[in-house]
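Sequence design from tokenized structure. All designs in this work follow the same two-part layout: the structure record, then the generated sequence. An example of the structure record is given first.
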């Protein structure tokens, strides 16, 4: 069994990192807090570079689940304001569970359409207000609808306006393009894993910022990183991140394995998302505390990561709910 990313996957990851370093500075993320259209040039760049092709989730041709996870980690590290998670991870991930009958809409997402996933058990949908198509899971069925008549989008107050949230209501007169039977656990395995990947990338970047600050900031003629309280706080963050990273990679491998049991794949994804959500929220809190008063200011970028962590962590279920559901599935309560 291969463990770790292949050379090609590492090259893809490095290329994405280089593009984001140049074209997704914190100033862009900040601008998206007030300008609802500021994300579009970077999204067009992602389309031009073929990143949206990950929506095909084609494991046999180098654009599959593992590649998606690698790219989303980099997007999380940059707090990128583009809807690749929503389109290639959430919407396309759910569509893949519906089989070949959903391939046409996966292709549309791969060509650059913005997608969003709406689940009847979730109060809000990420990037729904930006979406060209909505993938709706309700009552054991997956349907595809377009924003417009019969589809009501109610914007929600988002702690991170660079990735807006909305409540989606599909009324009886909505024009539905397709309705397909779907296993809900199978449909949510890739969306949960993809969200975990972005959270892991975000937490990793926050820890890097905090460690760098702790290694240079001095108090009482010593760098603060030498204080036991700081060292333990950062070490706890590192352990939480690496646990979440391992669970996320394991979930990705199961999601990419056509022979894997779908409940096992869902459970692995749920555990990964729960761990990643906790790692991201705890590490960003630690980052603010290590930075001290600097971390509380508008001028420092830490709040951009804190906002994103708070917004993504409860998506598709918070950690308490996911751990509970995963445990219930093991004892046959699901």
């Amino acid at each position: 069994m291969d463990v770790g990313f292949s050379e090609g996957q590492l090259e893809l990851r490095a290329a994405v990192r280089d593009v984001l370093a140049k074209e997704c500075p914190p100033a862009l993320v900040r601008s998206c807090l007030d300008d609802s259209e500021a994300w579009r040039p970077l999204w067009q760049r992602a389309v031009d570079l073929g990143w949206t092709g990950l929506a095909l989730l084609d494991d046999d041709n180098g654009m599959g689940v593992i590649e998606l996870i690698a790219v989303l980690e980099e997007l999380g590290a940059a707090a990128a304001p583009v809807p690749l998670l929503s389109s290639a991870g959430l919407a396309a991930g759910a569509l893949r569970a519906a089989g070949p009958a959903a391939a046409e809409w996966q292709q549309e997402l791969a060509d650059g359409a913005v997608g969003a996933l709406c689940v009847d058990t979730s109060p809000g949908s990420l990037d729904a207000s930006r979406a060209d198509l909505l993938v709706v899971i309700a009552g054991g069925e997956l349907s595809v609808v377009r924003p417009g008549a019969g589809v009501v989008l109610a914007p929600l107050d988002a702690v991170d306006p660079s990735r807006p949230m909305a409540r989606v209501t599909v009324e009886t007169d909505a024009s539905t393009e397709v309705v397909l039977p779907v296993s809900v656990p199978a449909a949510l395995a890739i969306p949960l894993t993809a969200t975990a990947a972005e959270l892991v990338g975000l937490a990793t970047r926050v820890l890097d910022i905090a460690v760098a600050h702790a290694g240079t900031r001095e108090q009482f003629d010593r760098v603060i990183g030498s204080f036991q309280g700081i060292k333990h706080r950062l070490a706890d963050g590192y352990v939480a991140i690496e646990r979440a990273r391992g669970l996320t990679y394991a979930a990705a491998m199961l999601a990419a394995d056509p022979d894997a049991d779908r409940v096992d794949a869902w459970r692995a994804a749920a555990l990964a998302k729960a761990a990643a959500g906790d790692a991201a929220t705890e590490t960003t809190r630690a980052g603010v505390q290590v930075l001290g008063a600097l971390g509380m200011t508008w001028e420092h970028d830490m709040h951009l990561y804190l906002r994103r962590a708070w917004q993504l962590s409860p998506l598709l279920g918070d950690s308490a709910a996911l751990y509970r559901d995963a445990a219930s599935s093991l004892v046959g309560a699901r």
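The longest helix spans residues 184-214. We note this feature because it recurs in several other targets discussed in the main text.
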